[in-house]
Amino acid sequence: MVAKPSFDDNCLAPTSEGEMSNLVAESARSGAQLRIIGGGTRLEPMSLASGQKAVSTRLITGVVDYEPGALTLVARAGTPLHQIETLLEGEGQILAFEPMDHRHLLETTGTPTLGGMVGANVCGPRRLFAGACRDHLLGVRFVDGSGRVVKNGGRVMKNVTGLDLSKLICGSFGTLGIVTEVSIKTAAAPEREETLVFGDVTVSEANVIFTTALATPFEISGAAYSQRTATLRIQGFPQQIAYRRERLKELFCNYSIGIFDGERSKEYWIGIRDVLHFASTGHPVWQILVRPTDAPGVVSGLERLGGTTSLDWGGGLIWYSGKASAADVRRVCGGSQARVVRGTTLGPKSFFPPENKFVSRISRSLRATFDPAGILNPDLLDR
Q1: Which UniProt keywords apply (predicted)?
Q2: Measured between alpha carbons, how far is 271 from 174 in angstroms, rounded to an integer?
Q3: pTM above 0.90, yes or no
Q4: Where residue 64 sits, what CATH number does that domain have?
Q5: Hey, how many other C-beta atoms are within 10 angstroms of the C-beta on 383?
Q6: Residues 171 and 31 in one domain
Q7: Can you list the alpha helix ranges (DSSP code H) found in the chain?
Q8: Which of 238, 303, 258, 272 is nearest to 98 (CA)?
Q9: Tens digit of pLDDT for each residue in 98-135?
Q10: Residues 269 and 284 reside in one and the same domain
Q11: Cα 99 from Cα 258, distance rounded (Å)
């Protein structure tokens, strides 16, 4: 039976994978487009087109299996992310990639969900140390654009199942399928953290600090730059932290280095993770992936367009907030992967980075396979 509308007249909220499958199958037959919103926090709110319906997974909830000793967790897509993190915290564990919370940046009021995190491949500052969300997936279940339930991967780390569809689904923003269940690796939580603070440095100086620090064996788990301040985070056991801090201070003896520790360090990195420094600018916000050594040149070009920038992932991620047009931003970024996070006025062509003709051919083939009717989040795509 197809789920009845919930939350408002334009939002459907199936309570199970079976209901979601029926809903999508009926929509595919009728050609009705669906806006997949998960918990409603990862995409900037946009008005629905005529006949389009919003579909939320937030009622498909519950932890299916959690094995702390095996570092694995299986949960349904609508499970609130804060419930997952609270459960892990009770066992001294975390999601190693430190997923961002978009609510401040996008001014959304929903609840972040596990499925939304996977659909958007959400990562935070720890990505440079632990990898992205997709690197920690063991498997997914999802409903494709025809209403078929597809299962890929498994529930253990030693798992071989052929083509890894999990990595295709992760970061596809619902354009290939609607995630209904996730199997993911967990990690031990660090006992302590400290942040080394380098004040009054340029982007080029920050770039040198990052590349030098990340070439050491001192396990840097955060490297960011904002408002002329570069920061390096170290996490681990207390004795490890003390040793690494002193070695890094010796390495950068030409700089005046401050220290954030304990809660102050955690609060600082939450701000970096959630890009709070751009939350109230009111301008479009771009997420730009570059080679870290290219960051100073790209930042210089962006700042000539007007607006402000910051760096994360050791310079591999540039955040840009400004009034520049999509064409100007992409011109400055060249071959970099630039995606609009906030700024619907720039249009759907700005959401996903441009693809070369070979990648575009593969992408269209995948969408034709998993969503032949073109009903899943079509307003994010330049079809």
Answers
A1: FAD, Flavoprotein
A2: 27
A3: yes
A4: 3.30.465.10
A5: 9
A6: yes
A7: 17-30, 81-90, 103-106, 114-119, 127-130, 165-169, 203-214, 238-251, 262-273, 295-304, 326-333, 357-370
A8: 272
A9: 999 999 999 998 999 999 999 999 999 999 999 999 99
A10: no
A11: 26
